[in-house]
Specification:
26% helix; 3-stranded mixed β-sheet; 8 helices; Nucleotide-diphospho-sugar transferase domain-containing protein; Spore Coat Polysaccharide Biosynthesis Protein SpsA, Chain A; globular; alpha/beta; 248 residues
């Protein structure tokens, strides 16, 4: 059975979240995971998308391009396949910090769309990001960094392992398998770009619900003083204390 948003709201089924994983950013992944589970009022099932695992399973064989800044640049598009093309699931980069209950985002899901995301109009000023990776510029930049996938939508069957391994970056990151009207919009506060988006005083509609450290986050030495670094570092300390307590 294909699970709709209505099913999500009325059942105890876990909402599936796939988080991009890169060995260089393990701590970012752990903190992102913690920030979601800590605030979620609904059951969630969080799975890291690990490229080496996907290669072992025969789902990913694409050669790495020098412009790929992370190991999940393309593997993210396997989300519908990893969900057996059923129900809704979310992909998100690991460099996010969630500040609100994920249920609020799930409640925005509309079954008429194939995907939903924040539709940024964004051109980065920096030429490099994170730990010196090249900052590329292309249409619909950052749209694919947080996507709600209607995995059972017929159009998303296009995202087979074969397609994910052979299609161009433009085809995948610009969602060229879809018509514009099949792409739903999510408020920008769910993919609040650090260094780009701004909080307007006394306007709660501009308060971030999820901060995206797209230029680089406090887990890199060069970005320890970026906006919202204090929130991320606080979350990291909380995660570390809980992790150490569980280890003892």
């Amino acid at each position: 059975m294909t699970m709709s948003n209505g099913d999500l709201k009325t059942s105890n089924a876990s909402f599936r979240i796939f988080v991009g994983y890169d060995p260089r950013e393990d701590l970012a992944y752990q903190v992102c995971h913690h920030s979601i589970t800590k605030r979620s009022s609904i059951p969630v099932e969080i799975t890291p998308i690990v490229q080496s695992d996907l290669r072992e399973r025969g789902l990913y064989w694409r050669e790495r391009n020098q412009l790929e800044s992370t190991e999940f640049s393309f593997t993210r598009f396997l989300t519908p396949h990893l969900s057996d093309y059923q129900g809704w699931a979310m992909f998100v980069d690991c460099d996010f910090l969630y500040l609100s209950d994920i249920k609020e985002l799930v409640d925005l899901i509309d079954d008429k769309y194939a995907i939903m995301c924040v539709q940024h109009d964004y051109t980065p000023k920096e030429t490099t990001k994170m730990d010196g990776a090249v900052q590329t510029v292309y249409p619909r930049k950052n749209w694919s960094s947080m996507v709600l996938y209607n995995c059972g939508h017929p159009k998303n069957k296009t995202l087979s392992p074969e397609a994910v391994n052979t299609q161009t970056g433009a085809f995948l990151h610009r969602f060229q398998w879809l018509e514009d009207e099949e792409i739903g919009s999510v408020p920008f506060v769910w993919n609040f770009l650090e260094g780009h988006n701004r909080v307007v005083e006394n306007d709660p509609a501009t308060q971030p619900k999820a901060v995206h450290f797209t230029r680089g986050g406090p887990w890199f030495d060069a970005w320890k003083t970026c906006d919202f670094a204090d929130l991320w570092l606080s979350e990291m300390e909380e995660y570390s204390k809980e992790n150490n307590k569980n280890a003892n």
